[in-house]
Amino acid sequence: IDAVDRGNWRETAVWLFLAMLGKEDIGLTVAAFGIWTIWRYRRWRFGLTWLGLGITTSLLTLFVLIPALRQGPSDTLARYAWLGNSPGDMIQTMLLHPSVIILHILDWNTLFYALNLFAPLLLLSFWNSRWLITLPAMGYNLLSASPFQQSVYFQYVTPIAPFVLTSMVMGLEWIFSRWLRESWQRAGVLIGLLLSTSLYVLPLAIPAQAPHLPNETAVHAALAQIPPETAVFTTNYYGPHLSHRQQLITPHDNDEFVRLRQADTILLNIRDHRSVLTILTCTEYAELLTLAEADHFGVAFAQDGVLILTRQATLPINFNEHLYPYCRSEQS
Question: Domain residues of the chain, as ranges?
């Protein structure tokens, strides 16, 4: 955006090219950027070039490159399966049944999503046209069946945040130059913006609001015992604490047994029922422990519902000792 503002179109092209290398959907944002440059600067050749390159790159990555590398269809499409069984069916639904798309988007989730993006910035982003570049990313996030694409706390806002923030800055500059010329007026807006972003976007900045587990001490003790070079299988909420390693494995797509066999160490917190897509029940923990037992894992650490399982450990997994005492309410 800075290169565009300076009129340096060659530098802009370099940044757009590098952006497309990052993620399969970024090409759609690059395409929207091309349309915006046509509308804002009348750069027809530049805009049409990047419109075509962006769409082509995303399509090739999604339908050719990713399937070739993973030897199967892109898992991204699974989030849009409600539109159809194939990419052709999905496109047909969007073109021939737009009312289905409209009804899907027009709900409370869309409102909350928009509020989370723009309300912390006091809606100042709407005072500049750059936020329009985010429309493709906002569109496919809202159409996704994954609830995490409708959250501002995950990586799915990567194509959105830069343009929302720069639109806010440029919108603020426009308002200051025309309406709020007194220093005290500008200071008031900036203080309000600071308070809004701090309280709305960063609730965990207030320590009292941070969630706490009943067995945090045991969790920290277990994490300290896992060597950095070992491949670890664990649930999603513990992944960030173990990401400083080459191989980190989490439950996914009902293939836990295959994924367990790739691990050297298993970390489970039976008292923590949080999961990315659902609630981890005692039954699901029992299934994981059964699979681990079948693959000759033993108990290397057991404290207050936190387990470390390794193949070198000789202590057998005991459901009455390691599982059920922490699931009594559910068992009853």
Answer: 2-204, 216-331
